[in-house]
Each structure stands twice: as C-alpha cells, then as structure tokens.
Amino acid sequence: MRRTKEDAAKTREEVLTAAAEIFYENGVSGSSLEKIAKRAGVTRGAIYWHFKDKAEVLTALHSEIRLPQEAIVDYAIEHGHDDPLGLIEQGAIEVLQILAEDEHQQRVFAIMILGCEFTEHLTDAAQRIVTANDEMFGKLQKLIEMAHERNTLGPLWTVDAAARGIQCSMNGLLAEWLRSGKSFPLVDVGERLIRGLVGSMRCGDSR
Amino acid sequence: MRRTKEDAAKTREEVLTAAAEIFYENGVSGSSLEKIAKRAGVTRGAIYWHFKDKAEVLTALHSEIRLPQEAIVDYAIEHGHDDPLGLIEQGAIEVLQILAEDEHQQRVFAIMILGCEFTEHLTDAAQRIVTANDEMFGKLQKLIEMAHERNTLGPLWTVDAAARGIQCSMNGLLAEWLRSGKSFPLVDVGERLIRGLVGSMRCGDSR
DNA sequence: ATACAAACATACATGAATGATTGTAAATAT
DNA sequence: ATATTTACAATCATTCATGTATGTTTGTAT
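^ Those are the sequences you sent over. The predicted structure of the assembly is below.
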C-alpha cells in the first residue's frame, strides 16, 4: 500500500482535483470528505493524512491559483506606469482572456466566490479573498492616484470611487459569468465594459 | 400556550427576523433551526409549525424582498420610455438610495448573494435568484433595444453587452459593498459608476 | 359547556459527517 | 538486515442537525 514520495504527491493532487469538482458541484458545506475521497479513489484516511480537515483542503485549493484581482494590478505594475488608466484597461482584458481559457481556475474561482459562504465572522478561506480584494483595491488606488496627478482623471470621478468602480465591475462580471453558467461571451462583454468604464474616467470623456 | 391569530403571525415574523440574523451571521448551511428558534425565543416546534423546513424559511425570506434588479427595471417601466438610458440611470440610483437605508433588505440581500451557495445543481432558493436575474436581463435588453432603435446607443456597445454590463456592475457593486462590511459609500460610488457606464453608452461619448 | 382545532413545546429516533484510533504494507534509513 | 517511518485503509465513538411523533394548552365554534 505504501507508495513512494511521488505517488504520495500524486494522490495529494488527485484529492485536490476531486475536491475542486465536488465543491463545484455541491458547494463547500454540501461536500463531505467521504464524497471527495470516493471521487479521488481513496479513503478519508488519505485525506486526513495530507490535510488537517476540510478547511485546509479549501485553503490548499485557494493557494493554487491567483485571484484575477491580483493579476490585473500586477500586469499594470509589470508594464510600466506611463498611462495608468490604459494599463488597467489592458491588464483587465489580458486577465479575462487568460481566465476564459483555464477551466481549473474557473472552477476554483467559482468555488471561492459562489460555492463559499461569506458570513459575518468570516472563515479563513473567505478571509483570504477579502484580504486579496483589499490589497487589489489599494494598488488600484495608487495607479489611479497617478492618473489623477497627471490630470487624466475625468471630473466625474474621485480616486476612491474609480478604484471601487473597477473592482466592483470586474468582480461582478466574473461572478455573473460563472453564476450564469458562462452563458455570455466573457471577453467580449468584459472588453466593452472595461473600455466604457475606463473611457468615462479619462479626461473629457466624463459625460 | 395557544395564541390568537395575530400572535401566531407575530411569532412567524419573529422567526423570520431571527432567521435573517442567524443566516447573516453564520451562513445558511451553518445555521441550525435550533439556533434560529433560540434567537426567536421559541422552540424548533414553532418553526416546523410555520415552515416545512429550513429551505422554506429561506424562501419566505426571499419572497419578502424585491431584488434590486427587479426594482430598477420596474422604475424605468413606471416612468415612461422617453429616454431609456436615462431611465436606467435614474432607476439604478433610486434603488441604491432606498437600499442604503433599509437594513433588513441589506441583510436578506446579503444572505442571497453571499451567505448562500450557488452550486452546479442549484437549490431552489438559488434558482429563484438566477431566474430573477434572467428576467431582469431580458427587460434591460428591451430598454436598451429601444435606445438602440433611437440611435442613442454608442458604437462601443451592443445591446446584449450593454445589458450585461449594467447587470454585472450593479450586482458587483452591491456584492462588494456588502462583502466589505459597507466600507465605502454605496450611493456615492454607485452614482458615479452608473453615470460613467451609461455615459459611455450614450452616442458620442463612447470613446 | 363541550368539542375541536390551532399553536406551539417536548421527547425521541435516525442518519450523516466528523475526528480519532488502530492496523498495516511498503519504502527508506541505518 | 533490521528498524523505523511513511502513506494510507479500516473501524469506531461522538456529535449534531434533522424530522417526526406526541403531548399540552388555549382559542373558537356550536
């Protein structure tokens, strides 16, 4: 029964893959470790060997992927700061294109925002999303602050409102897309949405 | 112990209020009927008298409030169709102002979109939200179609993309606001967001 | 006044999920 | 070659929520 280290790592991965599927199908609280184990072709014992409990399985899934929020801003930072608003626009579109192709990321992301319960006293899993969102907001703020300093931010917008607006629209877009079962073209809608929004933030285009 | 009809209706309301609180604090699946009963000052027996099970409590909560999506479109329909885009703008802002004042609606709405799990095979509770969203999308489509026929829809947008864009942005705005613990001014951000978006949809303002 | 039904409370049975414990075969270290 | 640890499987006890069944009190109709 005892396997080599590579085998162990493989079963660990298989458990995570199975967990992503089961979580996606039944929601986190609706998924028992028994179901996950059965799907992965092991027993609960194997899961308890690799992970402390269900929460740790979720955490492991989360740490596997990068949130779109993080990716958008990283793109902007990576590509210089000549035109902050343009960078946000480009970054967002890039991220959407990548995410639209990656089914595993879609599943995990769906679990994070749809199959997980955000309550008043947050679970640590939900807390990570909140934290990532906050960080992303902070970075967005800085980028838009730069646009503001260069007088390229239209009169309709404040720095904070602009950052929130982008954050809300992007998260809402992804949430709706996943919730609707990907019933509309993500990149097409997203591109128009982000162009329209950022366009309205540019000086002279405000109204 | 037996109370009059008014007393019964009162306990029913108290159960629903307690349920909203408990669901909001612990999430739907994390809430037992025992907790709800204790909070309401009754026993589980009382809950089972008024409702079939936990799902029916949730359904009762849902049917109490109107989704913002529904309210926005109804506003537009109610106020004539001279300027469809303007009506959407006004309607959205109206709805935000009302929702920002009503704590109970906020709680129930938070339960619906954050404290509930959207899975692959949806629960009937989640299904209702999806359906309501779809209906709202259809109506939004019609409104924007009218704008399109009057040639007031900018070249950046298609009818479908515009409807999706508004839907995603509004839902995302509310979700972020609630998820962040109402950490930013909803009406202020929302007003700029919807003005910016709708502004970009108007002819001549597209880019 | 009596009979019945409404509006609950109380008690119990059931099942599911969890966490812990124990068993064990194979890999690895010595 | 032996000891030890790894990587699980199998079993078990406990908790916890649910659903149901039954009991009890009080309105209300006749």
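Residues 1-5, 32-34, 44, 48, 53-54 of chain B lie near DNA strand D (CB under 10 Å from a C1'). The longest helix of chain B spans residues 124-149.

Shout if you want it in another format.
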